[in-house]
Amino acid sequence: MDLTELRWRFELGVAAPLSQPQGTPPRLRNAAVLLAFQAGSNGVELLLTQRPRHLKAHPGQVSFPGGKQEPQDRNLLETALREAHEEIGLAPANVELLGTLPQHHTITGFNITPVVGIVQQPFTARLNPGEVSAMFTVPLTFLLQQNNRHVMLVQRRQQSHPVTFIPYGDRLIWGATAAIIDTFCDIIGCDVQRITKRR
């Protein structure tokens, strides 16, 4: 799959339009993340970051560039682009926005809007050491293989929650990041004839 095919598969199967999502459930804070895809040596690749271990929240975890919506952000699309620029030096003008995925509610109190985009030109990453310890890529072909994505029930506060895990090399992608990847793969991995008939 190349970037062109990714683009039209997403457009055929997308569950949400390129727009500001409406409404936030009570007691949840708005946030946005950027699923940034680029052409690489392994075909289409997804950019991911790893959080520094000194952070109080989610230390060492794999994540997307992204964060909380700030007052200066006109919408959540702008939040995702701003955070990607601040965290890894990806210029907003260098991202072709394709659309958004369904909002993802976390047990830590966030309403996350995943924004999908394509990096148009190669760029030199500038990592913000306060937020990112490393940036790496994962081939989309790896993520699309269902047997690489695992869901397990995890106990938290006497309740069971489904948690997605994606082992990749010496890293473990899990939680909201893995769940959002799983949703994306379900959308673009659908049979094209079935998507067309549904429309």
UniProtKB/TrEMBL annotation:
<dbReference type="InterPro" id="IPR045121">
    <property type="entry name" value="CoAse"/>
</dbReference>
<feature type="domain" description="Nudix hydrolase">
    <location>
        <begin position="26"/>
        <end position="160"/>
    </location>
</feature>
<keyword id="KW-0479">Metal-binding</keyword>
<keyword id="KW-0378">Hydrolase</keyword>
<protein>
    <submittedName>
        <fullName>CoA pyrophosphatase</fullName>
    </submittedName>
</protein>
<dbReference type="Pfam" id="PF00293">
    <property type="entry name" value="NUDIX"/>
</dbReference>
<dbReference type="InterPro" id="IPR015797">
    <property type="entry name" value="NUDIX_hydrolase-like_dom_sf"/>
</dbReference>
<dbReference type="InterPro" id="IPR000086">
    <property type="entry name" value="NUDIX_hydrolase_dom"/>
</dbReference>
<keyword id="KW-0464">Manganese</keyword>
<keyword id="KW-0460">Magnesium</keyword>
